[in-house]
Amino acid sequence: MPKVIVITGASSGIGEAAAKLLAEKGNKVVLGARRMECLTKIKEDIEAKDGAAEVLATDVTKLADVEALGKLAVEKFDRIDVWINNAGLMPHSTFDKLKIDEWNQMIDINIKGVLHGIAAGLPTMREQRAGHFINISSIAGHMTHPGGGVYSATKYAVLAISEALRQEEAQMGSNIRVTVLSPGAIDTELPQHITDADLKNGMDKLYDAVAVPAERMAEIIAFAIDMPQDTTMNEIIVRPTVQMP
Ligand code: NDP
After folding, report:
1. How many alpha carbons lie under 13 Å from residue 75 in its C-beta half-sphere?
2. Reported pTM
3. Pocket test for ligand 1, best of 89, 105, 212, 238 (most atoms within 8 A of CB)
4. Of ligand 1's atoms, which has the minimum distance to the CA of residue 136?
5. Most exposed residue of 19, 58, 106, 233, measured as fewest CB within 10 angstroms of its CB?
């Protein structure tokens, strides 16, 4: 049965790969991110393969934007079956660099962005008495390292938010599923935003050495979505086979 799937941060990387695979499988995708030119190209690619996609300029730090994305899904496709809170930023730095703007950006995008997605999707899913949130955390949501303190904190937060949401919805019997996907190094634009010169080189080397394509994550997301409704993949940790930490 095709599903209506909202994806934040769908203009590149994991979000783009998931959008394309899920559309190829016959689902209707509703894609948000800030770079409209990338989203438009992705919509064209999907439609060229007879897929269905809608796109909207969306900044996940703005609740009104995220609510508009949810509204678009309901207006165009009548429902929201899956909401993938994927938008994220990883400008690693050590605390002594005092990159306070970047700390705040990570908190706003990686934590508040997920909360905004829940706020925008949950009422519709409750009405439908069915739905599925897929929240993208990270290996960094299970461990931390020098330079990764704030990013890890945001990804631990995604785990806590997701587990509480899961318990609440299970208790309500609302039939809403919650999945957290925690990837290791995936070959995307993510490390490009690191501005701490002392860390950038090391991260680039790690990604060059071990990262796997974003399409792997798309396959895992599709697998989690396709599980029978009475069963949920709650937590998925996935690393490149050669990634050590
Ligand atoms: P990318 O940088 O390729 O994608 C990040 C996406 O987030 C882009 O589409 C970007 O779009 C979007 N985004 C950033 N800020 C905002 C915002 N304010 N509002 C809306 N969208 C925003 O990286 P990935 O695909 O790797 O990242 C996807 C998720 O996966 C993130 O949550 C990341 O933390 C997580 N992850 C990635 C790993 C990796 O190794 N790549 C490992 C573990 C987790 P735009 O700029 O157009 O707004």
Report:
1. 10
2. 0.99
3. 89
4. 32
5. 233
From ligand 1's centre to the CA of 15, what distance in Å? Answer: 7
Determine the straight-line distance between the first and last CA of the chain, rounded to whole angstroms: 38
Half-sphere exposure of 174 (CA within 13 A, CB side): 22
Q: Domain residue spans in the chain?
A: 4-238
- The rounded Å distance from CA 171 to ligand 1 centre is 31
Euclidean distance between CA atoms 119 and 177, whole angstroms: 15
List pLDDT tens digits, range 231-240. 999 999 999 9
Question: What sign does the dihedral 221-178-29-3 (CA atoms) show?
Answer: positive
Give the Cα-Cα-Cα angle 2, 23, 155 (nearest 5 degrees): 100
Using the CB atoms, write b or e for 208-244: b if 16+ within 10 Å.
eebbbebebbbebbbebbeeeeeebbebbeebbeebe
State the distance from the centre of ligand 1 to the C-alpha of 195, rounded, in angstroms: 16
User: Among 151, 194, 214, 220, which one carries the catalytic annotation?
Assistant: 151
Beta bridge partners of 4: 28
Find the Cα–Cα–Cα–Cα dihedral 16, 161, 65, 74, rounded to 10°.
80
Residue 156: active-site member: no
Residues with a CB atom less than 6 Å from ligand 1: 8-15, 33-35, 38, 58-61, 86-90, 109, 136, 138, 183, 185-186, 188-190, 214
Residue that the structure tokens 């899904």 belong to:
73
Per-residue pLDDT tens digits for 4-37: 999 999 999 999 999 999 999 999 999 999 999 9
